[in-house]
Amino acid sequence: MRKKVTLKQLAKELNLSISTVSKSLKNDREISQKTIARVKELAEFYKYKPNALAVSLKSSRTNTIGVILPEILNHFFAKVLNGIEQEASKHGYKILTCISNECYQKEVDYVEMLSNNSVDGLIMSLSQETQITNQLDHIKELKRDNIPVVLFDRINETIDCDKVIIDDKKASSKAMQHLVDSGCKNIAIVTTISNLSVGELRCTGAKKIAEMYDDVSYHMLMINEVADVESIIEEFLTSNAVDAVLGLDETAAAVSVNIAAKMGLKIPEQLSVIGFTDGLLAKYSYPKLSIVSQHAETLGAIATQRLFKRLAMNPSAKNKAVTEIVETTLLLRASTLPVRTTKQL
Amino acid sequence: MRKKVTLKQLAKELNLSISTVSKSLKNDREISQKTIARVKELAEFYKYKPNALAVSLKSSRTNTIGVILPEILNHFFAKVLNGIEQEASKHGYKILTCISNECYQKEVDYVEMLSNNSVDGLIMSLSQETQITNQLDHIKELKRDNIPVVLFDRINETIDCDKVIIDDKKASSKAMQHLVDSGCKNIAIVTTISNLSVGELRCTGAKKIAEMYDDVSYHMLMINEVADVESIIEEFLTSNAVDAVLGLDETAAAVSVNIAAKMGLKIPEQLSVIGFTDGLLAKYSYPKLSIVSQHAETLGAIATQRLFKRLAMNPSAKNKAVTEIVETTLLLRASTLPVRTTKQL
DNA sequence: CTGTTAGCGCTTTCAC
DNA sequence: GTGAAAGCGCTAACAG
């Protein structure tokens, strides 16, 4: 079993010094063409690859970015990860992926683990527990270690760093507005994420619109934890005669649709449905659901670009933190009625 | 902006040598308790963390494993990744995640990228293009670099390395058997992955069973590329009076169900459906689909354990490659009829 | 008990 | 043109 080739070995075999070999491989003009050729040939022969560890240690750049996600089975985060990966790889960067599993302690551990010079920067979305308990020291300490962070989606205002978010409030307003415009009068707002920053914002946005209309009423259905979401929603829909459901997260939307189907409700004739989701439902549901598309992959790409910009910045010129907002799209399909109200001119 | 603390700086500040500091932090019994206490206090104060790069360079262990996946938006791979991550983190390992996007060249690039001492080992599933074109040198060369690989799901028999697979043939046989036993006579086998190793195996398994029965006929519907899967399946179901669909992959299964719903076919009365999928459909469909569960997370965990075992092995005692087989489960739900045939005693 | 030294593999400055 | 030497941060064998 042959060991991995190093500059040293190439040098010995060629009767050259290590530095000459190193320079040759970089086409340093100090070195004669003949030598360069010799070196390259042998390097090629042995398939020499510079030891990434040594290069990083020397240069203090790892070309790696750390990504800490609350979950990966949630399609939204999977898409964000995909966006990050694409963008990172385009720039020759690798990504270290960690999944906090919505758990504060795991998140802390991962931040610790990665802040040992393992990565050049971090992209992360806070775990549910972190947001609920509001423990943020582990993030704030990254500043002291001089490692830049970009927070996305599940952010916290008090942390001074770059952020990329969705305008959740506006998005849910738009969705609610559509329901109202298409004639819905009695709307259920269903959420299983009321304890997350984004959950609150979506709530606020939806309510704001509903409250603008005297003839529109809404019901909030907040479901916590891993309660039996299905039966809660079923019970709710049975005892409340709503004509629309706005699902503020994937679970809420998905379950609502299935329960409606089970109850024999016709969509959209009897029940209009709009869901915050990211393509999963859209792809696998019938009738096709109207959705608030969060452009998760774009979000991932933007977060990555942000981080690259930050990394490229002269650290002394530490500009103020930037918050970028990704616009959502309301994608109307078969699960909602067309707009009925005549807008005033 | 304070720079990251190193042993050197601690040593200077404490008027000790670097090695004494290093040993103190390791509770080396050679060092006096008093010194250990002093060192630890200062280290704590500065939140000293050993530079992972330097440690790795020294020890030639990165505590990182590379994971190369064909896709991440496919729920199956997301689940596998989750399984890998959980298992790895349990052992204090980080994972470098790469997504080949079904593209041979990206896969090659990633293998190159990671085999520069960036990882201790690799877990991967071959990209579609790699399987089709059968170019495998990049994987085989890993052996020369002495970096262990565990291949899962999309494997290749000619590569000498550990493998973790699902018994796809048996799984599809089981599924087909159930359809037959529940009285289906005219069964569509729908696949969009006939060009993958797993696709072929599933095909073979299903056909084998169908062909055992004189009164059962089957139709193969192989859909290639990103053709308009929906219309092809719709057309097929319209012109062929089948009473069951066996979807050999997620797309095939999902689209079949939706089209059936669209066509007004009652499931399972008029059409039984079983799909190879990994919980996605199950979670979001109504009626609940019968599925072949591939236990993706288990698969990921097992692959990781395999890799750890390999890493722990004395390299000179390079045992033969091991192939582990993960059993599937046929999860029967509302989309299939109960078994009708009376089995002979 | 503590310190010196060498070395992991590489880059880079400075001599020759 | 080429090479020697220092150093990135750490560990470990060996001296003292």
Describe this structure in words.
The structure is a homodimer of 345-residue chains. Chain A has 345 residues and is of the alpha/beta class. Chain A has helices at residues 7-14, 18-25, 33-46, 52-59, 75-90, 104-114, 128-133, 137-144, 168-181, 197-210, 229-239, 250-262, 280-284, 296-312, and strands at 64-69, 94-99, 121-124, 149-152, 162-166, 186-191, 217-222, 244-247, 272-277, 290-293, 323-326, 329-331. Chain A folds into three domains: 7-50, no CATH class; 60-166 and 296-326, Response regulator (Rossmann fold), CATH 3.40.50; 168-294, Response regulator (Rossmann fold, 3-Layer(aba) Sandwich), CATH 3.40.50. Chain A has 14 helices and twelve strands. A six-stranded parallel sheet of chain A has the order 2-1-3-4-5-11, sandwiched between helices. A six-stranded mixed sheet of chain A has the order 7-6-8-9-10-12, sandwiched between helices. In chain A, strand 9 (272-277), helix 13 and strand 10 (290-293) form a beta-alpha-beta unit. Chain A is elongated, with a radius of gyration of 26 Å. The model of chain A has no long low-confidence stretch (mean pLDDT 93). At the A-B interface, helix 4, helix 5, strand 2, helix 6 and helix 12 of A face helix 4, helix 5, strand 2, helix 6 and helix 12 of B. The structure holds a DNA duplex (16 and 16 nucleotides).
Question: What labels describe this entry?
Answer:
homodimer, 345 residues, alpha/beta, Rossmann fold, 6-stranded parallel sheet, 12 strands, 17% strand, DNA-binding, transcription (chains A, B), DNA-binding transcription factor activity (chains A, B)
